[in-house]
UniProtKB/TrEMBL annotation:
Residues 12-78 form the PAS domain. SMART domains: PAS. InterPro entries: PAS, PAS-like_dom_sf, PAS_fold. It comes from the Bacteria. This is PAS domain-containing protein. It holds the Pfam family PAS. GO terms for biological process: regulation of DNA-templated transcription.
Length: 163
């Protein structure tokens, strides 16, 4: 097999992996125009990649504050460092419905998000990747545990007052 054919095959495998991984992958340019929208994002948003490509993240998701998001993304572009958003700071960036409504108590998908620089061949960062992880089960479990702890503390306080 020639080198170019092998490279093409490897590229095809990588693209297939990006589409089938159970993580949202979005690539944004410096103007926050969407360049890549994988199958996870398509499935949870109901929007096809062809519908979002070259559109502004903020026009599609007006609930995302451009100033806030820009501050999060600035060090990713300028310092080539990753940035993180956790569900404890902000339950979700994309208001996707919880796709397990019977087993889960949460209305929306809780998300952890990682922003990573995508360095071009000349060493500059013109695009960043955003990886969206569904952490609804983890968040729901933690919230239930905290609720049980509060209930237990209240019961202990009542018991101590009665004695």
């Amino acid at each position: 097999m020639s080198d170019s054919l092998e490279e093409l095959q490897e590229f095809h495998w990588m693209m297939d992996m990006l589409q089938t991984v159970d993580v949202g992958i979005v690539v944004l340019d410096r103007h926050f125009q969407i360049k890549v929208w994988n199958a996870f994002m398509e499935s949870h948003s109901g929007l096809l990649p062809s519908e979002v490509r070259e559109k502004s993240l903020f026009s599609l998701y007006p609930d995302i504050d451009p100033s806030w998001f820009g501050k999060k993304a600035k060090p990713v572009f300028e310092l080539k460092t990753r940035a993180f958003m956790t569900w404890e700071q902000r339950p979700y960036l994309f208001k996707f419905p919880n796709y397990r409504p019977i087993t889960g108590n949460e209305q929306y998908m809780y998300q952890n998000i990682t922003l990573s620089p995508l360095t071009s061949a000349n060493g500059t960062v013109e695009n960043i990747s955003m990886m969206i992880y569904d952490v609804t089960d983890i968040a729901g479990g933690k919230k239930q545990l905290e609720s049980l702890q509060v209930t237990q503390s209240e019961m202990l306080e009542r018991q101590q007052r009665m004695n």
